[in-house]
Amino acid sequence: MNYRILTSAARPLALGGLALAALTFPALAQETAEAAPEFATAADTAFIFNTLLFLIGGFLVMWMAAGFAMLEAGMVRTKNVSMQLLKNVVLYAIAGIMYWLIGYGLMYVDVSGYIGSFTSYSWPAAGTANEGDYSVASDWFFQMVFVATAASIVSGTLAERIKLWPFLAFVVVLTGFIYPIAGSWKWGGGWLDAMGFQDFAGSTLVHSVGGWAALAGAILLGARNGKFNSDGKVNPIPGSNMALATLGTFILWLGWFGFNGASQLAMGSNSDVSDISRIFANTNLAAAGGVVAALILTQILYKKVDITFVLNGALAGLVSITAEPLTPSPLMAIIIGAIGGIIVVFAVPMLDKLKIDDVVGAIPVHLIAGIWGTLAVPLTNSDASFGVQFIGIVAYAVFTLVASLIVWAILKATVGLRVSAEDEMNGLDLAEVGVEAYPEFIAVHGR
User: Fold this and answer.
1) What distance in Å separates the CA atoms of residue 201 and residue 207, rounded to the nearest whole number?
2) N or C: which end of the chain has fewer CB within 10 A?
3) Which tens digit of pLDDT belongs to each residue from 292-306?
4) In this structure, are residues 201 and 143 in contact, taking their beta carbons and an 8 Å threshold?
């Protein structure tokens, strides 16, 4: 109401109303103050932000499953796209179930030095205030999505010739047993953690473990038909869709900010948030370094730029910085990532010479660049030593490679790993899935 235009007759009534409101206002104000909620304590605020970090970081890493699916769909031939998409959806589901059923317990519950407890994991009931620095379920969710990443690495390497069900059987063992036991040695407070081994977000624990498992499978599975001639000549087998491969790379790049950033494990203070920001910046610079290094090197070596090397250069840069994304300077982050990109360019033809068929280049990107990133940690982190880092790399290599070879060998001897030559020729979409990704295209153009 605008009191400036009140009539003279109305003014006494209005003034009386104001006086009455003034008399009653203190009581109303007191009631309002009593009803107002209390401010959260500093500890509760830190708890909330730490939990939020785990949840946001977790769903960013979960989105990397889509990145792997798109990358692999683009790097395989048209006749195998549905198979790769199916494997990536199912492996994520298996990883979640197995990590709840037994994996988390083996990795984090009462770790004796080399292994945790054979137990399923649970979290407090609904409406229960959680103890600690973050909610129990958020911690489980964040740790779980890392497991699926390791399994996705295996999927890409063995594409276009492995049967669906033996692959999924291996995923059960990898996500339920191999990865959690290995992870307990560092992140679960086991023997490597006691030695001072450093791996901030998993260059070795996640990426090299997935790479060693993939390498074991590739050795026992063999190369795709037509990949290598009897005289050793390599026949390139181009992927079907570089647009999908590029989309997958960008999705993985985005997800990596959750992968590395949330591995700070705390967002309840100024210094924690500042460190997370530094991790984001270094992660991005390392990927950029990998791209530029692969771009320039392929131009020099091949006189043309190969987009597949550039995409994998970005991923190798990301893997390389994952072991220590906090302590490097911006220039050092670029250098670490660039060396990862260089590794990819030289490692891919090296594998070809060894007649190891890696469809998407996962072994150079995740295994070899992961080793490099782990060895690079002492360059910027004074708490790490080259000797202990080397011990950790060798320990993970021996355990994962031997365990994976045993599992793959059992599967090969019992149910078989490889589809028939005819099924491989026709494509796994038709032979294993029954739903082709591009039926109209194949009907018109053939195989």
Assistant:
1) 10
2) N
3) 999 999 999 999 999
4) no
